[in-house]
From TrEMBL:
GO terms for molecular function: ATP binding. SMART domains: AAA. Pfam families: ABC_tran, TOBE_2. PANTHER family: MALTODEXTRIN IMPORT ATP-BINDING PROTEIN MSMX, TREHALOSE IMPORT ATP-BINDING PROTEIN SUGC. It comes from Streptomyces niveus. This is ABC transporter ATP-binding protein. Residues 10-242 form the ABC transporter domain. Transmembrane segments: none annotated. Signal peptide: none annotated. Keywords: ATP-binding, Cell membrane, Membrane, Nucleotide-binding, Translocase, Transport. InterPro entries: AAA+_ATPase, ABC_transporter-like_ATP-bd, ABC_transpr_MalK/UgpC-like, Mo/tungstate-bd_C_term_dom, NA-bd_OB-fold, P-loop_NTPase, Transp-assoc_OB_typ2. The keyword Transport applies.
Length: 371
């Protein structure tokens, strides 16, 4: 496989991986199309890094297989897979300059470039990552965020069949991270090359991913374009993974005529719930989909203001509903300007913004009920 170039599709087929009694990957099924930018999102310990390592060949699956361009990689050495991986704990040469660290992949037999071409390439990448002024400095003398960009540059500087990036922006401050996100996707080599990008930051996943995969306990819960993940989450785990403040989940049951009745009294919603009467369900409403003081929505609620918190140009308002439950909403600053604690408020939500889920169970989060 040495010398293989061109972007490759990635597939994981039923990949299991355990460390002793600890299951890291529990039958991962995942495909990333050639040239796609795919974000894998999940909480700490979900199996994100292990997934990348099995694709890179740094870990062998206990069962199942990894394929690159449809070819089974079992037994193929990491070096021969032609993928480039950037770890969260990056391995750089601390005593050597940032330039040397960036140029070193271009001195390896497989990717060797003439010195002049290597210099152009290194400067190009350094410019894109905003580290051109640091090239002469030893990496050991750089900040964590600067070092992380050198590590990312080292991955992007040479051609690869796929980039495997493990939280590559985690050490940057919020402003720089946002700027780098935009830069990263615009880099020509990244646009052309299959990229599997791991993050626990849902904003990052939504900003970057052509498609997103949500992973929990070593399993893929859902994959899809961001619109699907946002509007049609598979279950309450996925719904909670995206959006801050968190989605509101109001408990209820299905009435005899198939409607939703709030468990805490207060309201009944005349939407048809495709579940048996008496079934415990939850109504999901995202804070940004709730309108303050308007009438005419499918769902209308009343309550009192509990807390308000300014979030830049918007305000997060926590409302205590009649039954006692709290609900978050995000309103434009103008709409929430005069609100004081204990003020009565009316809230409304359009039918298109209501999500219905089964109740959460100890063994699994409630699944979304169609549509
Ligand atoms: N070398 C190892 N030895 C033992 N257990 C491991 C090893 N590597 C990973 N694990 C375990 O496997 C599970 C998945 O770990 P992994 O690092 O893939 O998660 P992650 O989603 O990348 O988490 P994080 O966001 O914290 O990096 C965890 O329970 C972890 O403790």
């Amino acid at each position: 496989m040495t010398g293989a170039t061109g972007s490759a599709s990635i597939a994981l087929r039923g990949v299991h991986k355990s460390y002793g009694r600890n299951t890291a990957l529990d039958g991962i099924e995942l495909t990333v199309a050639e040239g796609e930018f795919f974000c894998l999102l999940g909480p700490s310990g979900a199996g994100k890094t292990t997934t990348l390592k099995t694709v890179a060949g740094l870990e062998e699956p206990d069962s199942g297989a990894v394929e690159l361009d449809g070819r089974d990689m079992t037994g193929v050495e990491p070096y021969d897979r032609g993928v480039a991986m950037c770890f969260e704990s990056y391995a750089l040469y601390p005593h050597r300059s940032a330039y040397d660290n960036l140029a070193s992949p271009l001195r390896s037999p497989k990717y060797r470039l003439p010195a002049a071409e290597a210099r152009v390439k290194v400067h190009e990448i350094a410019e894109l990552l905003g580290i051109k002024g640091l090239l002469e400095r030893p990496v050991g003398a750089l900040s964590n965020g600067q070092r992380q960009r050198v590590a990312l540059g080292r991955v992007l500087v040479r051609p690869a069949r796929a980039f495997l990036l493990d939280e590559p922006l985690s050490h940057l401050d919020a402003k720089l991270r946002q700027a780098m996100r935009a830069e990263l996707k615009a880099i020509g080599d990244v646009r052309r090359t299959t990229t599997l990008y791991v993050t626990h930051d849902s904003v990052e996943a939504l900003a970057l991913g052509d498609r997103i995969g949500v992973i929990s306990d070593g399993r893929i819960v859902q994959t899809g374009p961001r619109e699907d993940i946002w509007h049609r989450p598979y279950d309450t785990f996925v719904a909670r993974a995206f959006g801050r403040p968190l989605i509101n989940l109001l408990p209820g049951t299905v009435t005899a005529d198939g409607h939703f009745a709030s468990a805490e009294g207060g309201f009944e919603l005349p939407v048809d719930v495709p579940a048996a009467a008496g079934t415990a369900v939850q109504l999901g409403v995202r804070p940004r989909d709730i309108t303050l003081g308007e009438e005419g929505g499918a769902l209308e609620l009343t309550g009192t203001v509990y807390v308000t918190e300014v979030l830049g140009r918007a305000v997060e308002v926590t409302v205590r509903l009649e039954g006692g439950r709290q609900l978050s909403l995000v309103a434009p600053r103008a709409a929430a300007a005069g609100l004081r604690v204990d003020d009565p408020v009316r809230l409304s939500v359009g039918l298109e913004n209501l999500l219905l889920f089964e109740a959460d169970r100890p063994e699994r989060p409630g699944r979304r009920i169609t549509p």
